[in-house]
Amino acid sequence: MPLYKLADFDPNYRDTFGGDDIKGLPLYTQGQNRVGTVIDALVDPDGRFRYLVIDTEFDANRKKILLPIGLTRIDYSVQRIYVDGLSREQLQNLPEYRDDITVDYDYEEQVRRAYRTPGSNVTYDRNTYSYQQDANLYNLNEQNHQNLKLYEERLIANKNRIKTGEVAVGKHIETETARVSVPIEKERVVIERVPVTEEGMVVDSNEVQFQEGEVARIEIYEETPEIHKEAFVREEVHVKKVVEQDVVEAQDTIRREELDIKTEGDLPLSQNDINEIDRT
């Protein structure tokens, strides 16, 4: 099974772990002796931690080794990693790790043999080997790797769109009696008979022509009203919606968990460690 350096597997691993970086953390024994520094980590194709790459500081000898993750306890509160036993004999038996080597089954077996219980003669099949067969080396102990989650409540504002009413616009017909005045003209004939004086009664008999029958015709007209209905646009009605903005404020009591750290006994912590705890 191939193994990958942490940054090669996840270039953004710091964001994945919420800003925490395991690189650079010092490695201490349970007796508070510093034995090295974490310079990298190796993970399997599923992203599970398998080894920490340690730059050891035993005496004046420096050597890079692989430390199975199951033997460590990570304490981010004091920015330290603790190892449950790392003897000088184990360090001498561990193969040196270099960036250019291939961590294959044979190399891992050299590492595992150095950490396995002394006197253990168990053999494994390279074709069927599983990390669970060395669970004490690779499984994270939840008691030694506690991740505390501090919770807080927040007010989350969302909006729901609900129907508060509707407006229906329609038309109906109303009737009324309308009146209109139209002036009209009517013609009539007025016949006036005007008596004349005695002097005017004498005429020349030669000029007189007596006639019978129709002597004049006058046509008489009158106007009659013509009433009809036409439709006109009386007014226009525009129907539209407008959106009014408003701000609704709400308040409530929210809770937040804070971390309380209590120490007992004479702990071998430096002032920097205490400040780190306070900041955490």
What percentage of residues falls in helices of 4 or more residues? Answer: 10-25%
Q: How many β-strands, per DSSP?
A: 7
Q: Give me the number of helical elements.
A: 6
The fraction of residues in strands falls at 5-15%
CATH topology of the domain at 4-155 and 255-279: Photosynthetic Reaction Center, Chain H, domain 2
The run of helices and strands is EHHEEEEEEHHHH
Global outline:
rod-shaped
- Proper CATH architecture of the domain at 4-155 and 255-279: Alpha-Beta Complex
On the 0 to 100 scale, the average pLDDT is: 81
Characterize the biggest β-sheet.
Answer: 7 strands, mixed
Radius of gyration: 56 Å
Distance between the termini: 37 Å
Q: What is the C-level CATH assignment of the domain at 4-155 and 255-279?
A: Alpha Beta
CATH superfamily of the domain at 4-155 and 255-279: Photosynthetic Reaction Center, subunit H, domain 2
Structural class: alpha+beta
- Uncertain stretches of 5 or more adjacent residues: 142-149
